[in-house]
Amino acid sequence: MGFFKFFQSSKEDQSAKRAKDRLQVLIAHQRTDRTGPDYLPMLRQDILDVIKKYVSVGDDALSVQVDQQDDCDVLELNITLPEDAEATANALSVAKRRAQERAQEATGA
Amino acid sequence: MTKTIVVTSGKGGVGKTTTSASIATGLAKRGYKTVVIDFDVGLRNLDLVMGCERRVVYDLVNLVNQESSLHQTLIKDKRIENLYILPASQTRDKDALTIEGIARVMHKLKKSDFDYIICDSPAGIEKGAKMALYFADEAIVTTNPEVSSVRDSDRILGILQSESKRSKMNEEPVKEHLLITRYNPGRVKDGQMLSVDDIVDLLAIPLLGIIPESPTVLDCSNEGKPVILDDDSEAGQAYSDAIDRLLGEITKPHRFMEAPKKGFLSRLFG
């Protein structure tokens, strides 16, 4: 083991770096929840649910942050859409169809 | 003035009880009258690590329920003058504790001129852990260089900042200390373990000490002896350094952060 390790480029083995990167995101998240307004986690969940109605995204696709600029609070939303364009297109067409169905129901009723 | 220090972590198995035993023993060894309280009601273990498991008669729940006196309940350590152990109950659960009951116990301890009250928190963020940190003036957040432990430590910091008595009464916040345990400098050097700098960066609280991973820790708990009493071991010395910093010598340099230098051959074949 040691023999091979010695010749390996040291970069490949740096799982600690990945651990730190993952923790940085996670902890920033945890801290927003704790320092931001009480409703922030709920607001985040609601917005995420709305996005999910139209696009299939994971639970980590939305980051919500409150920053203070001068004397006003800025609510910053960051939505990461899936990279797979086809998936997005499919999701969007499903969403469109649903919207049409709903519109038809509404006019029918 | 009595100082109350909670040893906490969120995650289990990171070394809270080992740390509580050594910090309490270290403070008593420096001449401070110290009591260490086991808050892990139902899963008592501090008595084992302190080596006094056969001397437990009454426990914290008896004291809270006023079924025993402070004098009857405290176990005096046989090795160190000024050191007392307050064991948890093994048969009850955490619901047996109330803030009012603990407040009475804390008041009695303060009246008995204790300099330090060390609270050994159970794992988790449930009632037991919240009781253990409620009265804290300072907190030692015990963390392993490992993702789940770091995340849980950050979580427990949030709870300290919102659910301790100091936060609820709008007093000066609980003073936070980071204690990194089970540190393996060799693995850090190879990029396989979060480094001290990484953890300090992530948690952003002052570093109290680094306890290197060491077989002595297990040896000592096998024997019921706080590892700080083993002057020859690196872990014991690291705890002793942490005591110095806790008592104000904050600039004391950290030891045991470097991996022992390996020769060319052992690097090749090790």
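qc> The CA atoms of residues 17 and 46 of chain B lie 6 Å apart.
qc> done
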